[in-house]
Amino acid sequence: MTTQRTVLVTGGNRGIGFAIAEEFLAQGHRVAVTARSGSGPDGALTVTADVTDSASLDAAFTAVEAELGPVEVVVANAGITRDTLLMRMSDDDFTDVIDTNLTGAFRTVKRASKGMLKARFGRVILISSVVGLLGSAGQVNYSASKSALVGFARSLTRELGGRGITANVVAPGFIETDMTAALPEDQQSAYRASIPAGRFATPQEVARVVTWLAGADAAYISGAVIPVDGGLGMGH
């Protein structure tokens, strides 16, 4: 029997975040999602929050704690892209991506850690990307923000590992989402050709790795980077 946990997924209104929330719900957990707009799956508590704003995050956590109890599993998934080549990338293109993808994860996890330390239990799961370690032209900002999550999780593991708290990184490759569906067909074919598995992942394939990391079977895993990329980033 799985222990029911209170789970918070940031950016849970679409794509991978939505699928992660759905999978936790299917496994019987109490699930909340943050969204700037829209809502999470049926059965999830949706709270409006912007991960670039500490006060809005604090209010969101307070609302979740009041309704579902202290957050035991936090999935930092909210992210944005501002893709362009380095020479064309503005300071704002860079800092906006870092502020959402990296500093947003910091704000989220810092707030979640209060309850986790009290409970002496916590699961921190950071959603990175294969390009965090593999790199990608036109994504200096995005890949920098995503690779930084690895150092974040490993330092957090050294800080809080003795308190029953784990911190891990999931690094998805190409996933079937609205974002990849919008790419031109020849570009999609080229990407598929570079993936040993020869296909994109479903969002559920990422979600199930996340729920596994949150469960009892992964209690002794911390500071790990788990690729869900069909072999694309091998060795990275």
Automatic annotation (TrEMBL):
Gene3D superfamilies: NAD(P)-binding Rossmann-like Domain. It holds the Pfam family adh_short_C2. GO terms for molecular function: oxidoreductase activity. Residues 5-178 form the Ketoreductase domain. The keyword Oxidoreductase applies. The keyword Oxidoreductase applies. Keywords: Oxidoreductase. InterPro entries: KR_dom, NAD(P)-bd_dom_sf, SDR, SDR_fam. NCBIfam families: PRK12826.1-2. Belongs to the short-chain dehydrogenases/reductases (SDR) family. This is SDR family oxidoreductase. It comes from Microcella pacifica.
